[in-house]
Amino acid sequence: MDIDARGPRFGAAVTTAVLAVVLVTGSAWLLAWQVLAFLLGAAGGVSRSPYGRLFRKAVRPRLGPPTEFEAPEPPRFAQAVGLLFAGLGLVGYTLGPGWLGLAATGAALAAAFLNAAFGYCLGCELYLLVRRMTVRAE
Q: CA dihedral in degrees (59, 63, 69, 75; nearest 10)?
């Protein structure tokens, strides 16, 4: 079943804010929260992530009906990619090296910002590229 395309973009906006605060403060605890949010989104789909739930309960009822829908698989894959980068960032912030925390968190922030500001989901595009490559290989 397709999902309201505004939900993942809302989640990307919240993620952008969270990751920006992590980069400014160096808070491993806040990054751990974001890792959990990505984990829930990757495991259960974006509608099951904390930001997806917030969108569904508090934001979507205040908006008009959706006009754009998308398949849930690409955003879910994007959550897994975000989980990978945020997880690497958490390792860098907690165990070192510090540059790993900054670089991985910065990469996740850049991807989230692209989705939030321009509707361009890098993880979704990567999903589509992988799908095309695996279909050709068969």
A: -20
